[in-house]
């Protein structure tokens, strides 16, 4: 068997050399005699077979060489695609942060007499965000109980407890928080906003103590009134979604959806009044 393989290999080599010689001879011959022409005519079918085999071998070699190159290019393109996706995600993240900061800056420009400390939420003070947040700044950063906390969309709540490097913020959704508010369209300042707990926990608040003849309506914007110097004046809170009349207590109650999404907060800002011995906000 080994001898057969060796003979076969030698035969293939000899035939290949012979075919190659025939091809070279045929190409280099510009003109031949009648005998040569006859020989050429006889050999032509053999040349076609040789050319055909050569083309197939060349195509096969080209395929494998190109396949290797394409495979390498595909790996490179996949790597570049991943890098582009990562850059796009980073861009989207930076854009969102920029938009949030722009919203905050719009607020800080209108309240330039205050200082603002940025902080991050590191946990909940209870079982969920409705009970409050734990932030990563505290007394070492100038925070005190009673200070107001905002986000890019509006009012979040108030600092209710502090440590050296942490503080607890109770949100507007908590029934323990009460905020003096006014209706932007009517400028009424008698309303008191507090948390509004429902079975579905929709993250709503309600404004009570509105006069029964109040012109408040669905779609009105609710702002802080500044009364009591607990909250700065005209901080955005939310939008009225419904109005109810209490004929027994002779007043109106408005259900308000806050602008802040309390389930999806990231960055908060504590408003620091100029005089911090007593936490009071000038209006």
From TrEMBL:
Instruction: Name one process (GO BP) from the record.
Output: regulation of cell shape
What gene is this protein translated from? mreC
Protein family (similarity comment): Belongs to the MreC family.
Q: What does this protein do?
A: Involved in formation and maintenance of cell shape.
Q: What is the lineage of its organism?
A: Bacteria, Bacillati, Bacillota, Clostridia, Eubacteriales
Q: Name one GO cellular component term.
A: plasma membrane
Alphabetical UniProt keywords = Cell shape, Coiled coil
Protein name from the UniProt record: Cell shape-determining protein MreC
What the entry lists under Gene3D superfamilies is as follows:
Rod shape-determining protein MreC, domain 1, Rod shape-determining protein MreC, domain 2
| Species in which this protein is naturally found | Clostridium sartagoforme
Q: Kindly list any coiled-coil regions of this protein.
A: 67-111
> Sorted alphabetically, which InterPro entries does this protein's record hold?
Cell/Rod_1, Cell/Rod_MreC_2, MreC, MreC_beta-barrel_core
């Amino acid at each position: 068997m080994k001898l057969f393989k060796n003979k076969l290999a030698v035969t293939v080599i000899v035939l290949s050399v012979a075919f190659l010689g025939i091809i070279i001879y045929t190409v280099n011959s510009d003109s031949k005699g009648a005998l040569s022409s006859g020989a050429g005519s006889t050999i032509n079918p053999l040349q076609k077979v040789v050319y055909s085999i050569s083309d197939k071998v060349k195509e096969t070699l080209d395929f494998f060489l190109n396949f290797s190159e394409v495979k390498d290019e595909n790996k490179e393109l996949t790597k570049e695609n991943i890098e582009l996706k990562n850059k796009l995600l980073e861009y989207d993240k930076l854009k969102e942060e920029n938009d949030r900061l722009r919203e905050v800056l719009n607020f800080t420009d209108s309240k330039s007499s205050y200082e603002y400390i940025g902080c991050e939420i590191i946990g909940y003070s209870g079982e969920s965000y409705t009970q409050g947040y734990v932030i990563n700044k505290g007394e070492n950063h100038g925070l005190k109980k009673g200070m107001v906390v905002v986000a890019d969309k509006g009012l979040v709540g108030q600092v209710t407890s502090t440590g050296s490097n942490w503080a607890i913020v109770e949100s507007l959704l908590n029934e323990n928080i009460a905020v003096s508010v006014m209706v932007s369209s009517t400028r009424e300042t008698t309303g008191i906003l507090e948390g509004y707990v429902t079975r579905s926990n929709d993250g709503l608040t309600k404004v009570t103590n509105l006069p029964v003849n109040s012109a408040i309506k669905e779609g009105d914007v609710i702002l802080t009134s500044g009364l009591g110097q607990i909250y700065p004046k005209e901080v955005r809170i939310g939008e009225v979604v419904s109005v109810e009349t209490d004929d027994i207590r002779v007043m109106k109650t408005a259900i308000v959806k806050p602008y802040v999404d309390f389930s999806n907060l990231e960055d908060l800002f504590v408003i620091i009044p100029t005089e911090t011995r007593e936490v009071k906000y000038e209006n």
